[in-house]
Amino acid sequence: MHSRTAMTGHRGRRGAAAGRADERGAVAAELALALPAVVLALLLGTGALGAASRQVLLQDASADAARLLGRGEGAGSAQRVVQAAVPGAAVSSSISGDVVCVTASVEMAVGALVRVPLSAHSCALEGGL
């Protein structure tokens, strides 16, 4: 009877070890499934931060360009200011009464597939300092 108890206890330990191995395999499989989603979320988050920073630069550049045009500088100066801050940005301007407005826009790539259009609009008084 003593030998049966020893055999049963031995089998129980072997079964527990096999169960832990199965659990490790399940954890590895779950990690393999979740890892691409985590990497994608990190890449998209990084891209969103980049787009937000580019939007701030675009807004500042359009405000500077509007002030330049308001002081009587040429459209080339306004274009250079925006291009220096955000390469590849398009600039358009309009005058309504004594207000000069500038719109700057650029399309930003987030990863290989996602393109985000960014635009900023700013106005300044004509003849201002």
UniProtKB/TrEMBL annotation:
Residues passing through the membrane, by range: 31-52
Alphabetized, the UniProt keywords read: Membrane, Transmembrane, Transmembrane helix
Q: What InterPro entries does the database record attribute to this sequence?
A: Rv3655c/TadE (IPR049790)
Origin superkingdom: Bacteria
Spell out the NCBIfam families in the cross-references: TadE_Rv3655c (NF041390)
Q: What is this protein called?
A: TadE family protein
Query: What organism does the UniProt record list as the source?
Result: Microbacterium algeriense
Output the lineage of the source organism: Bacteria, Bacillati, Actinomycetota, Actinomycetes, Micrococcales
